[in-house]
Amino acid sequence: QVQLVESGGGLVQAGGSLRLSCAASGSIGSINTMTWYRQAPGNQRELVARITSGGSTNYAESVKGRFTISRDNAKNTVYLQMNSLKPEDTAVYYCNAQLRRLLAVAIQNYWGQGTQVTVSS
Predict the structure, then answer these.
(1) How far apart are CA 2 and CA 119, in angstroms?
(2) What confidence tens digit (pLDDT) does each residue in 11-28 have?
């Protein structure tokens, strides 16, 4: 049984900061890529930030310079530090992990439950 648990979402004023966390638990062998996605009402789901097991990162153009993704491999946790937040950042944020379960060969996708981020004007 593998589970991703997110935390850190909430309501913040424009220009403020927020940090999201996503912790993986269960019978995990290794975690490869961890990714943050977001989806606002009426919009398609979009990739926000991605980090590989080696520490390489990718960001959506709209968040470059404002958001930072990082991971703590010892805790099986990925973070998203969000600074200079704008109302257009308002969305449900989802955590995704590509991982191998303990003693398994195949890589599988797992999703968090999603956490609401609301940025007021």
Answers:
(1) 31
(2) 999 999 999 999 999 999
